[in-house]
Amino acid sequence: MIIPSERTENITYAIRDVVVEAQKLEKLGKKITYLNIGDPLKYDFRTPKHMIDAVAKNIHESSYADSMGLLEARQSVFKEAVRNGTDITENDVVMTSGGSEGISMAIGAIMNPGDSILTPKPGYPLYNAVIEYLHGKQNEYYLDEENDWQPDIDDMRKKIDKKTKAITLINPNNPTGALYTKGTLKKVIDLAGEHGLPVFSDETYDKIIFDDDFKFHPVGTLAKDVPVVTFNTLSKNYLCPGWRVGWLYFSGSGMEKYSEAVKQLARARLSINQPMQYAVKPALEGPQDHITEMVGKLKRRRDITYKRLNEIDGISCVKPRGAFYAFPRIDLKIESDKKFTMDLLREEGPLFVFGEGFGQKKDTHHFRVVFAASEQALNDGYDGLERFVKKNFG
Ligand SMILES: Cc1ncc(COP(=O)(O)O)c(C=O)c1O
Questions:
Q1: Is the link from the previous residue into 122 a cis peptide, with omega within 30 of 0?
Q2: Is ligand 1 within 6 A of the CB of residue 40?
């Protein structure tokens, strides 16, 4: 028997784990409505053709790429950041294998065993998986459901200690769909500044914003003095998660030594794939029509989601303002949200991810909905949920 290392013991990933049960049921002939996975390509979204053409044209580029990434891709990222108001150069950009690799490298280069990084609760599970892997300490601040899921700044302040190395923000947020106000972001930046901490700003969904009066603000544009590492990716905004092209960039002051350490990690893994990086320039500098179309479609699905969920007794949902996630609350007499979502799956077929998989306040229960699915699939899922709640809790 080969024994896995202790560092893998606390790594969980509910988003994929629930699929095992769904597939078992599917084999037995049950119709499953998948509303669990944040991959728009699994639904009715397609990669823009001009990006596919750019990759196809360069598919013969089979050597290792530059460890920092293809120059034209880094230049496009840097130009966009500067256009938005973040003061960086192309040397501040590192292309990564999806945003995921950038997150892992940024954490790996800052954290010693026993250190902590503030991460949101509920949050995206990758952060705590990496922290566990590095023998760090999970240290989570609450997102406040009563305040449109904005970060709870007082809680954040309380949780900073000698071992804290960075503050993570995910905006727009997975799993809540929240978009942070400029005021909230400024408070977080001030707090980071007071404690000499960098902000890790995960802006994966920055182009999926639904309402004109709720704007997205890149942290790098607001934090001129505070060090910031911004993570982004082609995966969601540009509809190609399987291509694994993302990036990070450094802004603010005091980043010289740390950014060199991240770059050293990038050199150690040689490079990310080469041909797919040719999609970055056409993506960021070419036509953006698909974004308008995608956001329009997702907004309709957001509206259906918000309306249908709030119509069900015992279920309530804060209105998502970005990304394609909702994190509705369950106020019913239940044992756990894991049992609730798994029973719902078995009885009615919609697959959601249980709230425990993302973390949540004690004695609250939630589940996550991916509303990138078609209107039909969403309505089928919500019909099933409604029947399930009436039958078991009515
Ligand atoms: C908040 C957040 N950050 C990062 C990622 C990683 O995305 P990728 O590695 O595909 O760029 C995801 C993917 O779902 C995400 O939701």
A1: yes
A2: no
241 lines ligand 1 (CB under 6 A): yes
Q: Are strands 246-251 and 228-233 parallel, antiparallel or unpaired?
A: antiparallel
Residues with Cβ within 8 Å of 196's Cβ and at least 6 positions away in sequence, in order, are none
204 lines ligand 1 (CB under 6 A): yes
> Closest Cα to atom 14, ligand 1: which residue?
38
Q: What distance in angstroms lies between residue 103's CA and the mean position of ligand 1's atoms? A: 9
Query: Coil, strand or helix: which one is 347?
Result: helix
Reference 324, options 121, 176, 149; nearest CA is 176
Please state the pTM of the whole predicted model. Answer: 0.96
CATH fold for the domain made of 63-285: Aspartate Aminotransferase; domain 2 (3.40.640)
pLDDT-derived band at 7 (thresholds 50, 70, 90) equals confident
Sorted by where each begins, the domain ranges of the chain are 6-46+289-393, 63-285
**Is the predicted pLDDT of residue 13 greater than 80, yes or no?**
no
367 Cβ contact partners less than 8 Å away, ≥ 6 residues apart = 327, 328, 330, 337, 340, 341, 352, 353, 354, 355
Topology (CATH) of 6-46+289-393: Aspartate Aminotransferase, domain 1 (3.90.1150)
Neighbours of 4 (CB within 10 A): 8
Report the C-alpha gap between 370 and 195 in whole angstroms. Answer: 36
pLDDT digits (tens, 9 = 90+) for 57-89: 999 999 999 999 999 999 999 999 999 999 999
Topology alike, domains 6-46+289-393 and 63-285: no
Which residues are registered as beta bridge partners of 369? Answer: 326
pLDDT tens-digit series, residues 133-155: 999 999 999 999 999 999 999 99
Q: How far is the CA of 100 from the centre of ligand 1 (A)?
A: 6
Q: Is 122 in the pocket of ligand 1 (CB under 6 A)?
A: no
What is the 3 state secondary structure string of 31-43? CCEECCCCCHHHC
